[in-house]
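User: Here's a structure from my thesis project, written as structure tokens. My advisor, Dr. K., wants to see whether a designed sequence matches the one we expressed. Can you design one independently, without my sequence as a hint?
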């Protein structure tokens, strides 16, 4: 159940109530190349909305309240998005129907778009999808605890943790197109200061963080 911070509860229940927006960050993943992703951001509003440096496009969608299950299954949610101009279905066709993707749902108060309200965020896995002429319908489920990363963190002295050419990596050149994340490769690409390994650990000193 999503809960509101106390100050927002007061505003929500005040006589001069202002609108609440539901923001969706729909992340689609290419089933052939997991590095190829597409993020679609929409809001249930008649105008576009800016939130946390992102623009959410005005869109028609329906979000059905999730069922309360008592048989141990993870709760599910149904999301129906307008497909009147067929643009959305083209994305889902390219990205394997959305399977393997996620939908982050954020509820924000119209007068508080500059606030970060993490209590009003929840991310669901896309379990299945279907398309009609008018709608793209997604079945959403909370991520399974079995899919969470474990252990939480692994600290390796000689293996970089950053994705090649990410902002953390910092490499923007064209000379190299791959990197095996070793110290020698990082040095060759002139990014030694950004090396994401933990050289302070002694040799063979792999550390695992569980908390």
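Assistant: Designed independently from the structure alone:
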């Amino acid at each position: 159940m999503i809960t509101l911070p106390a100050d927002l509860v007061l505003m929500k229940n005040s006589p001069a109530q202002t609108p609440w927006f539901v923001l969706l960050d729909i992340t689609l993943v290419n089933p052939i190349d997991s590095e190829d992703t597409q993020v679609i951001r929409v809001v249930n509003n008649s105008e576009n909305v800016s939130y946390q440096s992102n623009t959410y496009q005005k869109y028609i969608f329906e979000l059905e309240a999730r069922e309360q299950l008592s048989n141990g299954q993870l709760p599910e949610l149904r999301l129906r998005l307008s497909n009147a101009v067929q643009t959305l279905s083209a994305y889902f066709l390219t990205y394997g129907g959305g399977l393997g993707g996620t939908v982050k749902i954020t509820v924000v108060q119209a007068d508080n778009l500059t606030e970060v309200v993490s209590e009003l965020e929840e991310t669901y896995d896309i379990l299945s999808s279907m398309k009609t002429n008018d709608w793209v319908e997604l079945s959403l489920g909370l991520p399974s605890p079995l899919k969470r990363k474990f252990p939480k963190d692994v600290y390796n002295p000689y293996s970089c943790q950053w994705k090649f050419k990410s902002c953390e990596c910092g490499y923007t050149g064209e000379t190299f197109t791959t990197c095996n994340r070793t110290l020698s490769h990082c040095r060759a690409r002139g990014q030694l200061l950004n090396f994401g390994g933990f050289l302070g650990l002694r040799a063979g000193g792999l550390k695992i963080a569980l908390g």
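When you compare it with your expressed construct, this may help: Confidence is low (pLDDT under 50) at residues 205-211.
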